[in-house]
Design goal:
Helices cover 0% and strands 64% of the residues. It has 89 residues and is mostly beta strands. It is elongated.
């Protein structure tokens, strides 16, 4: 159907956090290495548009020494799920 646009995506990036910096990354965790996306837009007869999208980032962990107490090990784990809806007029 010419009124529907599908979108699919995949992204891979190597671990952005080194083991030495694991404890510093507690402020803004970013441990995921890949994510999958899918979405669609539907063009309405009146020129308006409905859009839906979903994103899934599978769980990923990084571990490293605690800079403030070297006897401790810190492990950060992150996963993500996102659903979006938009209506354009």
């Amino acid at each position: 159907n010419s009124n529907v646009t599908w979108r699919f995506g995949y992204n891979y990036g190597e671990q952005p956090i080194s083991e030495e910096n694991a404890v510093i990354n507690i402020l803004a965790p970013a441990t995921v290495e890949e994510h999958y996306t899918a979405g669609l837009s539907i063009e309405r007869e009146n020129g308006h548009q409905l859009s839906f999208a979903i994103m899934v980032a599978p769980s990923k962990s990084v571990s490293g020494p605690n800079l403030f107490d070297p006897t401790q090990q810190v492990t950060l784990t992150m996963d993500q799920f996102e659903f979006e809806f938009a209506y354009t007029f």
